[in-house]
Structures are given as C-alpha cells and as structure tokens.
Amino acid sequence: MVAIGDCRNWNEDSYRDSILQERENQSRTVFRTAFPPNPNPNTNPDFIVAASSDGSVASYSISSCLSSLALGAGRVSTVRGQNLLVAEPNCFIQGHDGPAYDVKFFENGDDSLLLSCGDDGRIQGWRWKNILEAEVPIPSQGQLKPLLHLANPQHKGPWGALSPIPENNAIAVDNQGGSIYAAAGDSYAYCWDMERSEIKMVFKGHSDYLHCIVARNSSNQIITGSEDGTARIWDCKTGKCIRVIKPEKDTKLKKLSPCVSCIALDASESWLACGSGQSLSLWNLAACEQVSGITTRASVQDILFDDNQILAVGAEPLLSRFDMNGDTLSRIQCIPQSAFSISLHPSGVTAVAGYGGVVDLISQFGSHFCTFQCGCP
User: Fold this and answer.
1) DSSP class of residue 88?
2) Which residues, in sequence order, are bridge partners of residue 229?
3) d(CA 188, CA 288)
4) For 119-128, what is the mean pLDDT?
C-alpha cells in the first residue's frame, strides 16, 4: 500500500502541465459561438461551436456536458467562485494565428460549411459533416485541411512595401448569392465569391476599422459598424454607401466610446439595433429613423433580436432583454464576467460566452441548464 503523503510516484512534469493548462483555460476568451444547422429546430441543440482568443475553433457536445454534470464526472475549474465543468471538445482546430473572432455556418444540411475569421486576416471553411465524423480531436489526427482559405489583400506602401494583412473582425453570409462578407481592420468590407475564392467587391467609406457586419439579403445590402462611430448601409450591386447612420449618444459617453461595436437585424430585416458604448439604439430602416434608445450599465458587446425583443450582453455578467420601446423586460445573471457573444437557437436556448472561456446556456425560461468552460485536447 502507498501511504498518504508518499511522494514516490510524484510526476513533476504532469503537475506543471496541469497548472499551465489551468492558467490557459482561465485566460481564454470566447469571442463568438454558433449553433450548427439542425433539421429539427424545436429540439434542444446538440452541439455548439466556439471561436476563441487562442485561435481555436472547437465544437462541444452539449449532451455530453449534461451527462458529465449529472454524473459528477470530468475535470472541474473554478470561475468566479463556482466550480464549472471543463468540457472536452469533440473537434478542436487551430484555425488561426492569433485570436479567432467569428464563426458562421454557410448553407444548411450535409453540405454546410463552418466558417471562421480572425486576427490573421484569413477566412477558413471546413465541411461540418467532416467535423462531426471526426472520432478523435483534430490535433491528434494532425490534419483536417480547410476546404476554403481566403486572405485579405495587403496594401502597397512607399517603395512597394506591403502592409500587414488586415484582420477580419466579423463575417456575414449570403447563402443564395454564394458570398461571404468580411468586416476588416483596414476600414474596408470585402465581398468574397465562394466558388472562385476571389474578392468580388470592396466597400470603401468608413474612416476607421470595422467591428461588425450583417447581410440584409432581402434588399441585396450589407450593413457595417465601425470605430468611426457610424453604421453604413451598402448596395451590394454597386458597392456604394447609400445611407449613413449615426447612433445618438450621450455627450459624456461620446468621448469614452464613439464606436459602433455591434449591430443586429430582425427577421423581417426592417429594424436595426446598434450597440455603441453604454447605449443601444433601434432604427426603422424604411424611414431611417431612430425610434428608441436605451442606456445600459456597461458597454454593449453583442446584440440580437428574438422576435420583437432585443437581447444584449456586454462588460458585465448579465443577459438583458428589452422591448422595442427600450423598456427592460428582464436581466439574468450570467457566469462570464464580461460577455462578447450571444447566440440564439430556434428552440429558445440562448448561449452567452466570454471571459474565462465560459459558455453559459440558458433555457427559454431563464434557467441555466448547462454551463461549462471550453477545454483543450
């Protein structure tokens, strides 16, 4: 028998690796999550994909997390005084050199592509079916080559010198048109042709880098939000800016954060929500009028529509819900101290993700039915 306190089997390397892994998990930030296409939208989600600050794009099985929580199995990490399950990814891809900022799905069904973009100025795409079929984490297999690989153009400077590749902060997709739109750090938005892997159009007009982008496919338009404090509506046929939106801000907040950090369209594509500093504004696009404004307690970092309501997260551990008049309907405490992403599944499940690599899944009734920290293989 080995007595308690016996150090003969102590493994210094294993202990050091566990400490480093714990620190890595705690310092990771999830910048975006996405639910894969589901043939039965009324059921709870099976998987969720996370794009993180370490450049990884990883998928996690929600049912496996729920089983581990029920059995009290798996690794545990302490986040804000709470013990959270460290979820093992069923697929882990080192997709980018530098942080991965966004993930989207292109098309539905077996042919759907998982797209990601990041600080390295690249857009990568993998077939979702191949990711689901991966029996072991991708680093163990070694290779799951992207089917799509796009890189932003470099700009020429004096004496022919090339600039660094500008980062991609967000992407949007047009399934019918076969296009990907990217919001880049050089103040431009790019439209990529999926089949040819070529830039079809460049949208120029912002004076500072872009934070966000959405596709208004019903009108063949895109909308971008920028550090310059404006949101712009662009005609995808001509590449011209057809409207400039300047969200109203308090003069004190204008000096603090004039940028448009996040935007969202409702299902009818008639209403636009803009997040700027500690404020939200709602716009009727047909009339190009602001119909309501909301002051928040912390900077807004992501927003989306849920029917006729607006969900928002930001630099506080809260999921806020507002109506179209700007009245607060609910505030739900979340685990991430600062949240950068909010995703909504057709079943009503909401995912909030951010600091600490934490993903907090909230049911349509407001209960936290699964919370985990994203782990690495």
Assistant:
1) P
2) none
3) 23
4) 95
